[in-house]
């Protein structure tokens, strides 16, 4: 004997609810019966709520934009870019952080940022000022390549004058070789 899909779904849903009502009250049992009910309803094409509906392409794009905006907001909390010894090249690990800052600056053209270049204590003061300037310039150039207006950025080099860590070891030097974005 054949039953219509609606009758079959109703019988299945009533059976699942009956089982759920008779089950124990522990968290594991209620979670299992709820999952069974949901699976049974989905299997029969019964809509279970907004969380289960399929998003339209426009809604998916909007959701992706919102997720990207939130990820970039989190990344913008990081404002320090570190450099290798005697180097002013942007390391790949900082690309997304700089992209987040660039996105923010492009979306907020009245916002300005100061990029501070820093070095560790090794080298002459003159050399370190020049290296700090190259590091700041490297960040400025990178942000400009992502669409940030040159008028939104200024740079300054402190060389070795403002260390974060005042020790003379590799760990301290690595923390002092940096560019800082100051809004």
Automatic annotation (TrEMBL):
Residues 25-53 are annotated as: Disordered. Residues 70-183 form the OmpA-like domain. InterPro entries: Bact_OuterMem_StrucFunc, OMP_bac, OmpA-like, OMPA-like_CS, OmpA-like_sf, Pal, Pal_lipo_C. Keywords: Cell cycle, Cell division, Cell outer membrane, Lipoprotein, Membrane, Palmitate, Signal. Its main location: membrane. Residues 1-20 form the signal peptide. GO terms for biological process: cell division. One of its GO terms (cellular component) is cell outer membrane. Gene3D superfamilies: OmpA-like domain. It is a lipid-anchor. The keyword Metal-binding does not apply. It is found in: Cell outer membrane. The Tol-Pal system is composed of five core proteins: the inner membrane proteins TolA, TolQ and TolR, the periplasmic protein TolB and the outer membrane protein Pal. They form a network linking the inner and outer membranes and the peptidoglycan layer. HAMAP family: Pal. Belongs to the Pal lipoprotein family. Part of the Tol-Pal system, which plays a role in outer membrane invagination during cell division and is important for maintaining outer membrane integrity. NCBIfam families: Pal_lipo. This is Peptidoglycan-associated lipoprotein. It comes from Aliidiomarina taiwanensis.
């Amino acid at each position: 004997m054949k039953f219509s899909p609606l009758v079959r779904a109703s019988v299945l849903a009533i059976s699942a609810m009956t089982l759920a009502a008779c089950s124990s009250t522990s968290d594991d049992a209620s979670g299992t019966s709820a999952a069974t009910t949901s699976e049974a309803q989905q299997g029969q094409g019964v809509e279970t709520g907004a969380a289960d509906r399929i998003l339209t392409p426009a809604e998916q794009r909007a959701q992706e934009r919102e997720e990207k905006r939130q990820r970039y907001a989190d990344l913008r909390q990081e404002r320090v870019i570190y450099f290798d010894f005697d180097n002013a090249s942007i390391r790949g690990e900082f690309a997304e952080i700089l992209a987040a800052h660039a996105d923010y600056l492009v979306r907020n053209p009245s916002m300005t940022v100061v990029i501070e270049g820093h070095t560790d204590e090794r080298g002459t003061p003159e050399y370190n000022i020049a290296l700090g300037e190259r590091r700041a310039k490297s960040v400025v150039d990178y942000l400009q390549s992502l669409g940030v207006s040159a008028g939104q950025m200024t740079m300054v080099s402190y060389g070795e004058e403002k260390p974060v860590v005042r020790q003379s070891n590799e760990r301290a030097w690595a923390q002092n070789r940096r560019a800082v974005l100051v809004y």
